[in-house]
């Protein structure tokens, strides 16, 4: 694993686990000192995080952890609740044993991340599970929209979520796959609706940025 990748993973984990809270400033000089690398190396990592919407970079202001509004958080989850269950009947017309096996592998990866307390990986894996399911429905426009909503949900969970937001407290994805295998569309729709509503209710819509973050303690080598 490259040095840039190691720094990226450490910063992403710190954002997702709220060690770097929404709105926290990310000064290149202090991060460079903490990681023991050049500011150019830090800038590359910050730009990558910005492309994934976990960080915002503003001219003359530098970088900070992105801070989705509370209204945005609720609107994104409400949009998913409206759309994703409705895709299930069409999804089931394409469902087969190969799909079942592929998605069960994803569930195994999710459980491994959860058991290993890898919250950042858990958030990214659950997003992938949902938007790859949406692609099976055959509507490319809606699938693309769901994909964007899932990416935005990843940031929202990083800002306002808890471990319960991506763990079994919100429902084990393998339960959904069992319903797909049996062709139970109505039950699967109800499961998905409940699942997404539970994620929404798990959000803690209060978060304060700490302007006195000790980057050396957090990332020092």
What features would you describe in this structure?
70% of the residues lie in helices and 4% in strands. By secondary structure, it is mainly α. It has 2 domains: 3-67 and 207-219, Orthogonal Bundle (Arc Repressor Mutant, subunit A); 70-202, Four Helix Bundle (Hemerythrin (Met), subunit A), CATH 1.20.120.530. β1 and β2 (62-65) form a beta hairpin. The longest helix has 25 residues, at 70-94. This is GntR family transcriptional regulator. Residues 1-68 form the HTH gntR-type domain. Keywords: DNA-binding, Transcription, Transcription regulation.
List the helices and strands and how they pair.
Elements: H1 3-16, H2 28-35, H3 39-51, E1 55-58, E2 62-65, H4 70-94, H5 97-115, H6 119-135, H7 140-160, H8 163-166, H9 173-182, H10 185-202, H11 215-219
Short summary of the structure?
This protein is mainly alpha-helical. It has helices at residues 3-16, 28-35, 39-51, 70-94, 97-115, 119-135, 140-160, 163-166, 173-182, 185-202, 215-219; strands spanning 55-58, 62-65.
């Amino acid at each position: 694993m490259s040095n840039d990748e190691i720094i990226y993973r450490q910063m992403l984990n710190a954002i997702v686990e709220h060690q770097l809270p929404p709105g926290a400033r990310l000064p290149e000089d202090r991060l460079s000192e903490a990681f023991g690398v050049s500011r150019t190396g830090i800038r590359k990592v910050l730009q990558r995080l910005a492309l994934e919407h976990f960080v915002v970079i503003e001219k003359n202001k530098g970088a900070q952890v992105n801070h989705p509004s509370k209204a945005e958080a609720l609107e994104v989850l409400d949009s998913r609740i409206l759309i994703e269950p409705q895709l299930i009947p069409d999804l089931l017309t394409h469902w087969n044993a190969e799909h079942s096996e592929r998605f069960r592998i994803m569930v195994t990866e999710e459980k491994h991340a959860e058991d290993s307390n890898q919250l950042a990986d858990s958030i990214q894996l659950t997003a992938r599970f949902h938007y790859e399911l949406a692609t099976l429905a055959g509507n490319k426009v809606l699938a693309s929209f769901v994909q964007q909503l899932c990416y935005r949900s990843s940031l929202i969970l990083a800002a306002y979520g808890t471990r319960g937001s991506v763990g079994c407290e919100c429902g084990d994805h393998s339960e959904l796959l069992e319903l797909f295998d049996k062709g139970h569309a109505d039950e699967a729709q109800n499961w998905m609706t409940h699942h997404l509503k539970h994620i929404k209710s798990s959000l803690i819509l209060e978060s304060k940025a700490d302007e006195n973050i000790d980057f050396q303690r957090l990332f020092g080598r």
